[in-house]
Amino acid sequence: MALYEHIFLARQDVSQQQVEELTAALTEILATGGGKVTKNEYWGLKGLSYRIRKNRKAHYTLLNIDAAPQAVAEMERQMRINEDILRFMTVRVDELEEGPSAMMQKRDRDDRDGERGGRPGGDRGGFGGERRPRRF
Fold first, then answer.
1. Rg of the Cα atoms in the chain
2. What is the C-alpha to C-alpha distance for residues 65 and 98, in angstroms, rounded to an integer?
3. Between 76 and 98, whose confidence is greater?
4. How confident is the model at residue 124 (pLDDT cuts 50, 70, 90)?
5. Sign of the C-alpha dihedral computed for residues 78, 14, 89 and 22 taken in this order
6. N or C: which end of the chain has fewer CB within 10 A?
7. What pTM was computed for the model?
8. In percent, how much of the chain has pLDDT > 70?
9. C-beta separation of 104 from 42 below 8 A
10. Alpha helix (H) ranges present in the chain?
11. Interatomic CA distance for residues 96 and 38, integer angstroms
């Protein structure tokens, strides 16, 4: 059996419950082909960089899959037919990632700003030069 990471985007019109039902249906397709889903993460409704079929947002879901290539091909065939799925991508990997994915890990904004050292020039704005008096 091969290992895969699979991400799909569902339309913004569908509810989270419908996305979970869709994920369960895909898991069932893989199970009938002798595979299994080792991790299932719902990333939520996120904005898209550009419109896809008139949608500005999409429900993102990640699946880690341990299945035969034929089972994955059947799952992808079913996804192409389904109108609720906007895009999907399956990547074969050597090993599956343990624990939560990078999207699920929470980072504190304050910690990230502290690592970068804040803005250059303090909070004066501009390019860090001296302030000039205003002319009226």
1. 22
2. 13
3. 76
4. low
5. negative
6. C
7. 0.73
8. 78
9. no
10. 16-32, 69-81, 109-116
11. 9
- Looking at residues 20-32, what average pLDDT do you find? 94
| Cβ–Cβ < 8 Å for 87, 13 | no
- Mean pLDDT estimate for the chain: 84
CB within 8 A of 111, min separation 6: which ones? Answer: none
The whole-number pLDDT of residue 121 equals: 53
The structure tokens listed for 25 are 């249906």
Residue in this structure with the two tokens 């050597």, named with its chain if needed: 94
Q: Do residues 58 and 84 make contact, with C-beta atoms less than 8 angstroms apart?
A: no
Annotate 10-33 with b (16+ C-beta within 10 A) or e (fewer): bbbebeeeebeebbeebbebbeeb
- In degrees, rounded to 5, the angle at the alpha carbon of residue 22 between the alpha carbons of residues 16 and 27 is 125
* C-alpha dihedral sign at 46, 88, 78, 52: positive
